[in-house]
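Reviewers of the previous submission asked for a worked example of the structure-prediction workflow described in the proposal, so we include one complete record here. The input consisted solely of the amino acid sequence. No template or homolog information was supplied to the procedure at any stage.
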Amino acid sequence: MGTGIAEILARAGREVIGVDINESACRRAVTALEVATARAVHRERITERERAGILDRFRVSTDLRTASDAELVIEVVPEDYDTKHEVFAALDTVVSPSAIIATGTNALSVTRLAAESAHPERVLGLHFFNPAPAMKLVEIVSSVLTSPAAIEAVTALARDLGKEPVALGDRPGFVADGLLFGYLNQAAAMYEAKYAAREDIDAAMRLGCGLPMGPLALLDLIGIDTARTVLEAMYTASGDRLHAPAPILGQLSEAGLTGRKAGRGFYTYEAP
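From that input alone, the workflow returned the following structure tokens.
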């Protein structure tokens, strides 16, 4: 997700710094951008000169202090409060008080992250969808603490990036995932109960409802561990059994069968 967001920003002429936990992760980000832009040249969507500009505008680091001059920081670390809080606390000591800090969470409380920040008025949610370069929707989430100026600035940026922003309040799952994950959870439970084969569940939703992808294939794409985390957060907040994760999601996650990124989930893939 971070690499996809970096690609969108760099393509739009922004200078982008990708910060990750080690050199290996940074190299993977650079390689992913090189591959994505090479594919775009091959498809004649951009020129070689434009590709060179995109790559020149993207640099990586393992040191958060390289973000000290950033006007916007987008956090997309794993869906864990302690990890996100650690990043936000570090950012408070690094970036300017006027810089906007956006969390990419789709399950955790933006309000809680803002309240624990030194400058809660500049914290908001900026939720891109996977794959970020292709998906048009961006959910912009404000807490009761977020300043209107921060929302206006990020909304304008989203439009400049060619995205369609929607403004939302703070609740787990927001709009799209709030509706989507209950459906995905029910599909997993249906498969677990052996009511229908995985291929038939997915075919029913593709061919009967006109969806581009069936729910079990979509869970593999999202990441089964990520889906479980999102559902747990939603269930904790709402108490709605629709969001109580189907046991199979926990079993697959704990076995490391997390979907496409692992090479196996509900389906088996040739490679991660």
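The radius of gyration is 19 Å. We consider this example representative of the routine output the project will generate in years two and three.
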